User: Fold this.
Amino acid sequence: SRADITYFGAGPALLPTSVLEEASQALLNYKDTGLGIAEHSHRSQYAADIINQAKSDLTTYLDIPEDYEILFMQGGGTGEFSATVYNLVGAWVTRKKAEILKQLGAQSEEEANQEELVTALKKAVDTELKLDYLVTGGWSLKAYQEAGRLLGPEYTNLATDSRTVNEGKFGKIPDESTWKLSKNAAMVYYCDNETVDGVEFPKFPDTLIPDSNGEGPIVVADMSSNILSRRIPVKNFSAIFFGAQKNLGSTGVTVVIIKKSLLPPACPQPSPALMRKLGLPVPPIVFSYETVAKNNSLYNTLSIFDVYIAGQVLKKLLATFPDKVDGQQAVADQKADIIYKALEAHPNVYRIVPDKSVRSRMNICFRVTINNDTDGTEARFLKEATAVGLTGLKGHRSVGGIRASNYNSIPLAGAQKLADFINNFAQA
Ligand code: PMP
Assistant:
């Protein structure tokens, strides 16, 4: 039964049983309306209330400042690899255009000599537009490749690549002093926790911290696999995104936390006509942050059921942890510590894949070798773990090995059970 299983899958992940029990009722008959939550209109007051409550609870839980907007989108983390490119390139063009208009002495775009404006902008695009990527694992690599695919690789800058300092593999983060950041990049993009490679940034990078006036690089982060598990300095980011299916809820909704200064009225996206003149891509409307923001995430039919689940998880987190994300962080750290200590106690059997300095608290990746046999030992490890109810431990197909995804819904007792199994397996 469900109670016998601790599921360590990398996503979709375990959801709290109490949330699912309530959700099963809500699917049948929401608030005694005779209709389920997946059937009610996304234009209903019920839907609006669910969205607004989830936004408010997320804001409370993470202490999101007032000058940020929360968007619920579709398309997953993968959709955001594209959306970030479209929207942040658009924002860069808007900033550049304002600069050029000033140089041309024009009060507005309409007032400027159009040919002069487009020529100057095109020159800026050709010579200055860059998107910086810190590639520290498979997911940031995919995001970097998507930017190259959409824009052309000449606009992307591989500011750092972990594989260059770790024998061609992911598992370390190069020293910040070696990062080659562009001047005024449209964004500096990184993945805070690499789900496949088990690499997590230990903290917000020093070189990207804004100055005392709040001025700094435009930083965008993928937090799909570690959101809600530790405190984040939201004010340092221009945008943060994450799919819901690991630490927040069910698959089908992607959250974007975005600084309002990147949205209208401060920063309207350039017109499609101008983008075409500049040879730059125009975002599909469902990926346009300004369109989604303008419509409180209801430009098109959003899965309100998925927002509802996320909202219930947030409500549970807020009820469990009076000190909000700090409380969850303490538990997440403790769970990771228990599992890593068990692995470290048997160095002749277990090899933790990433470097200690960047080990993920969420995705614990290791290899198991006994008598020089890794493949056979890992197969036995997985089989014996499954037999005692520890499931979902197989590493990602691209890297093999074992991966314990230690997301928020894994209880402390579940992490302890895995640690005990790790100890027993090595001693058998
Ligand atoms: N980023 C990270 C860090 C991920 O772990 C994943 C999925 N596991 C993705 C992006 C892609 O998300 P999706 O499958 O929702 O597109």
The chain has two domains: 52-306, 323-427. The longest helix spans residues 76-103.
